[in-house]
Amino acid sequence: MKKKDLFILILSVLGIFIITMLINGIYPFGNNDLAISDAATQYEPFLYDYITRLKNFNYYNYTFMNFLGNPSMFNFVYYLASPLNLAALLFNNYKLMYLSVIIAKLIITSISAYYYFSKYDKKIGIIASICYVYSGWFLAYYFHIMWLDGFMMFPLLVIGIQNVLKNNPIIYILTLSYIYISNFYIGYMLSLFTLIYYLFKLVTMKKPYAFKIQNFLRMMLYTTIVIGISFFHIYNVYNIINKTKLVSYNYTNILQIKDFISALFSGNIKVIHTDTSDYANICISVFTLMGALSYFFNKNINKKDKIHSLILIIIFLIALFTPQINYIISGFTRPAGFPLRYSFIFSFLLICLAFKNYLKENINIFNYLLALIYLGLLIYFYFTKTINLSIFILNLVMIIIYFVYLIHNKKRFTKIIVSCCIILECLVTACLNLKGTSVITNSNYFDSSYSFNYFSSMTYKDPLNLAGGFGIVTDYKSTVKDITGIVSNIMTKKIYGVDKDITSFTLEDDFIINRNNYISKLTKINEVYIKGKYNIKIDNNLVTYEIKEDETYFFTISDNQNYVMWNDNIYITTGDITTLPPNYKDYHISSSIFTCLISMELKKNDEVTISYKDNNYRELFIENPKLVKEVNEKLNKYELQYDIKKDNHLKGTITLDDNMIIYTTIPYDKDWLIKLDNKKIKPIKLEGGLIGIPASKGKHTLELIYDDTKIWPFTISILSIGIFIIIIKKHYKENL
Hints:
Shape: globular
Largest sheet: 6 strands, antiparallel
Number of strands: 25
Strand content: 15-25%
Helix content: 40-55%
């Protein structure tokens, strides 16, 4: 690996990225942030909180920053475990923290790819590496920083598998262990690929059966060591899944042939799939794709290699197009919003085939025919509006350049021009897709304030169900959006004495009934939520509420409605507010994403119009201010007086007037050590999976300590690392 070539590669990769940021006004060259979609709501704020706590030496194993609270390990193992996240320690600005992690992984991805390709040809290896770095998968999923490690290390993993067949396990063990530790989800997917690819290579290689059996047994040993090294991480993943009870879905989405073909066009990506089909982000350079297709018509490549490559492609295509297989690959769940997360493997395979084709280039009639078919498909997809004008122009220019290359391919000058064109193609592709966003969410992480709003893929399920039962916006899996009201205030308090009846509280179908029952069971104060004062006008399916007094009103957003309109604003059935469109009367929602309550401060004579799918309109409710005051006074009377208030350690005194339940809005978790009057007790699990502690009349000392420390998983990982070191020493000793 020449330093000069490596320098050119890194400079090219970074140059494309920096120019893209300049053109698209991405911070620090503009106001846009690279963190889009889930990165804006999860990865960037979580990373900032994690790095800031490390810097201040206050990283606890539990945090109340997330909804009602959860172990820090929840976020760590899924979002933050990559060692390269520590690059963010160099910065204090949250945007620079996030950017630094992406750039660090981008550079190492280019080095990893070049290490693979340069073993065959150093010059083509530079271009092949750039094509891999800026392939469709990266352009679609670059903001998923915890997935980038798998993408980054994959070329080395392939080398590792090939080396295992030569009885050299070092790279294999290192890379797969690193991938598992960085993100178990991608690690699991790549383990399946590893198994298939290894078995395929083992079966097809010309070696005695005795060698194959021995090598297979060694591979099992090496894989066991990988599991051992990453066991601490794997154990915590298993523990979290048991605690969160994550929802599993049947995988019903299907990759359409049309979408698959259009995904091959350079720069054509989709970040999120539709409701009916998936999308494979597999595009690479036009030259690379043409080379991969020409591989099978190249007379200088032997038929056996072509057959082997074709079998691998067929296996991969079966996986892409089979929902049941995708369900297994995706960890027995349907990926929410971001499908076919392993598709970079297919792009890498195409680049490898193109690479081999250009090393043994044989231009014939098939090259021209394939290019004409590509051109025809490009025109067809543009006029059927499958691809936009920018993608059409980009691919049209590149296919014309490819035709010129076919005619003048023998000239060295032509190849230099082509290399520059491919780099320029990657730059244009990046500019079209890496645009960033100006939206900031979960901002409480940036000022270390607590908030009821929350979004994470790693959360306790039962508290989400409880929040949903109160009409708080939640998808019952990962999202919480706060609304005002006494119930939200109660849930953000932590510990207080309540009536014993809370143990009999259960959720029903109606939000208002649940809220009234909840408050009643806690305090014996009834009917806090009452019907508001308003008149009603009905015009077909439009119901207008004329407000008669200033108050905060609560109303339901559900499948029964198309929208709620107030002044120039409209709430659709997601519970999100948007600007009122001109055709609001024709505004229809086929299905509801969230069913929830919306709170709105209204004045006398205000009008709220709700479009119902039937004439069975619903009442609007307000909170009885007198009773709200009584509820707060009663809860405050029995609130815990803190002596210690840390995320993982709570201690204080509480005085009760009767035999009561010490009610906590902390999710039940067996790793909470709870002491009442210095005696360890076992709590009860209340509705919504919250901790309840029976206590007698009088003054009590209460202490809660969260301790999820487990020595034995860590010991297994350390011992496995020791075994790996012995293997390294033995390997080098044998090869001296």
